[in-house]
Design a protein that fits this description.
The complex is a heterodimer. Chain A has 12 helices and 15 strands. By secondary structure, chain A is an alpha/beta fold. A 6-stranded mixed beta sheet of chain A has the order 7-8-9-4-10-11, with helices on both faces. In chain A, strands 1, 2, 3, 5 and 6 form a 5-stranded antiparallel beta sheet that branches. In chain A, strands 13-14-12-15 form a 4-stranded antiparallel beta sheet, with helices on one face. Classes of the chains: A alpha/beta, B mainly alpha. The interface of A and B includes residues 104, 105 and 124 of A. The structure holds adenosine-5'-triphosphate and magnesium ion.
């Protein structure tokens, strides 16, 4: 077919995912507001098809980072490529390739769900047939087909969120940004939305960058997680690797009497069946790799020393532990006091 | 290349227009409210002023004189509202959905303007019809057609003004202030409610600086066949005003941040 020279410019450059190394690549990207540095020299890469999480407390800079990547605001410094296009110089190409679900709702609540989707399709240049088809698809994906013709004002929060995700998918984006997709939803709806997100990522191969301050969400969904605090990345890895960084599983031993506990502790350390040991009245807390395998050894050492153990528990470290480790506070934006830390371990133990 | 971007531009304008139309069709109370005020003016003021009151230049000062003024006023209200409604779009978040789309901001604001001017014209035409029902007579079919064109041109201008203001206002609190500080003087200092042929010079200056004056005068010429300001001047001023405001609105909207 004959193509005139201008025509190659019409369609956004199609970039082969095999050639393209990263779906998102930021280089020292920075955003300063008047006095605050909301995002401070962040460099991350996200591979095509990856489900990447930004985990951080309120005000960490998650939304600001997403706003820069989605061309809503310009960086004060550094640069970023999204699907191969520069977010400043190639913003139109970036926009054509991304879908964004903002933290706050951006639906027109006087319109019906279907009308919202239809307008979106038009803005992204889908023709009538394609819009109809796609609207049907995305509505059934988020299970809103039945309410599609109701005015959005009459939707529940969870329905609105689902409609927004559906809308973000209308134009087959290569990269989807989800800013707190489940904020304020009940646990059931949240799990529902997690399922959609996983489905999209696994079956449609959409690269997803999501922000959250729910540990469980990040843990459940993400291939990799960046923990962001005060505008900086403080840790970045797979959820498992992050948890492993803490030195393994947490084993708690309970004793009838506190006699000789000190001695036992040092022998655990000497024998290499503990990375860290701490005792607390009638308890010993041990972190160690492969906790299950170490328990017999630990118990044997205790009975060898003639100390009777009343309870043993083992738990895997959670992202909460990781978060506290890297930021020195719980995600609720409070400083973690000693007492809070203790009560925290107690709650975790009861689980 | 040219054809595709042309189609995209049309598509963008149409999409924004469509949205305004859907919203307009759902807000029955807004339409009734918008018609009620000019209707009261027309009936009460029209009856209050005696028809023997002769205006220099021919026309009589009665409900016929008031009708074009009220049409102009409702076009002004509807258009400014249409432009300033971008503030609500920002407040309720929908603006982000528009700004994130891979479309030209200029055509987005043009589409918004087309939507707003359509609602303004619908309201203007409804008042024209109501006035006819209560006895105002227009000079010709052509005059009515031309009057609709005048509503379009002046409407576009005021929407551009509204969009420009909305792009600069930080919050919706500013909205109320703008509406009262802008609309009242514009209406009172136009020829909507009084003949402008015999004014003290200070007032005359203000009236002649007001774009609405030219809109009302143009409507009067089209519908009644006479005006104080020559129609050619009215059209020139209105065209210049609406082109300037469209350009300004498009430019400021392009720079707008959420
Ligand atoms: N437009 C703005 N002007 C000034 N400061 C801003 C602006 N937007 C964000 N900030 C500041 O930048 C910092 C990061 O904000 P951001 O919204 O990115 O945080 P976040 O991680 O998304 O938080 P949350 O979990 O509450 O959504 C905050 O201190 C915030 O006050
Ligand atoms: Mg945020």
């Amino acid at each position: 077919m004959f193509l005139n020279r201008g025509e190659s410019l019409i369609y956004p450059k199609i970039i082969d995912p095999i050639i393209m190394q990263y779906a998102i690549e930021t280089t020292s990207i920075t955003k300063n507001f008047d006095e605050i540095t909301a995002v401070n020299r962040i460099s991350i890469t996200v591979k095509p098809g990856e489900l990447f999480g930004l985990l951080g407390p309120n005000g960490a800079g998650k939304t600001t980072l997403i706003n820069m990547l989605s061309t809503m605001i310009e960086p004060s410094g550094g640069s970023a490529l999204v699907w191969g296009h520069d977010v400043v110089n190639g913003s139109d190409d970036v926009r054509q390739n991304i879908g964004v679900v903002f933290q706050d709702t951006t639906l027109d609540d006087r319109l019906t769900g279907r009308e919202n989707l239809d307008l979106h399709g038009r803005l992204y240049g889908l023709d009538g047939k394609m819009r109809k088809e796609r609207i049907k698809e995305v509505l059934s994906l988020v299970e809103l087909t039945e309410r599609a013709d109701a005015i959005v004002k009459t939707y529940s929060g969870g329905m609105m969120r689902r409609l927004e995700i559906a809308r973000g998918l209308m134009h087959h984006p290569k990269v989807l940004f989800l800013d707190e997709p489940t904020l304020g939803l009940d646990p059931q709806t949240r799990i529902h939305i997690w399922d959609y997100i996983k489905l999209l990522n696994k079956e449609e191969g959409v690269t997803i960058l999501l922000t959250t301050h729910y540990m469980e969400e990040a843990d459940q969904l993400c291939d990799r997680i960046a923990i962001i605090d005060h505008g900086e990345i403080v840790a970045l890895d797979t959820p498992q690797a992050l948890k492993n960084m803490l030195g393994g599983d947490v084993i708690t031993l309970g004793f009838e009497k506190s006699d000789n506990i000190e001695k036992l502790c040092s022998s655990y350390q000497k024998e290499g069946c503990a990375n860290t040991v701490s005792n607390n009245q009638n308890e010993i807390l041990i972190t160690v790799q492969n906790g299950e395998r170490e328990i017999p050894h630990i118990l044997a050492l205790a009975s060898g020393a003639g100390i009777s153990i009343t309870t043993v528990s083992l738990r895997k470290p959670t992202l909460d532990d990781v978060f506290i480790h890297f930021t020195g506070r719980a995600i609720r934006d409070k400083e973690v006091t000693i007492s809070e830390k203790v009560s925290y371990t107690k709650i975790a133990r009861r689980k | 290349m040219a054809k595709t971007s042309y189609n995209r531009a049309i598509q963008t304008v149409y999409t924004m227009w469509l949205r305004e139309m859907i919203r307009f069709s759902r807000s029955r109370s807004r339409i009734i409210g918008a018609l009620a005020t000019p209707l009261f003016f027309l009936i009460i003021l029209g009856a209050g002023f005696s028809s023997s009151f002769q205006v220099k230049g021919g026309g009589s000062f009665d409900k016929s004189f008031l009708a074009p003024g009220l049409i102009g006023m409702s076009v002004l209200f509807a258009s400014l509202m249409g432009g300033v409604s971008i503030i609500w779009d920002r407040e309720f978040g929908f603006l982000k959905e528009i700004l994130i789309a891979p479309v030209s901001r200029f055509f987005v604001s043009l589409g918004k303007a087309m939507g707003g001017v359509t609602t303004a014209m619908i309201q203007g035409i409804l008042i024209m019809i109501i006035a006819w029902i209560i006895g105002v007579r227009y000079q010709s079919i052509w005059g009515i057609f031309l009057a609709i064109v005048m509503m379009f041109i002046s409407g576009i201008g005021f929407i551009g003004l509204g969009i420009s203001i909305a792009s600069k206002i930080e919050s919706h609190e500013g909205f109320q202030m703008v509406m009262s500080f802008l609309t009242m003087p514009l209406v009172l200092l136009s020829g909507a409610f009084f003949p402008i042929s015999n004014l003290p010079s200070w007032l005359k200056t203000l009236v002649y600086l007001n774009p609405l004056t030219y809109g009302v005068e143009a409507l009067r010429w089209c519908l009644l066949g006479n005006s104080t300001i020559p129609i050619s001047i009215c059209i020139t001023v209105l065209l210049a005003f609406s082109i300037a405001m469209t350009a300004l609105g498009g430019k400021l909207f392009g720079k707008m941040r959420v």
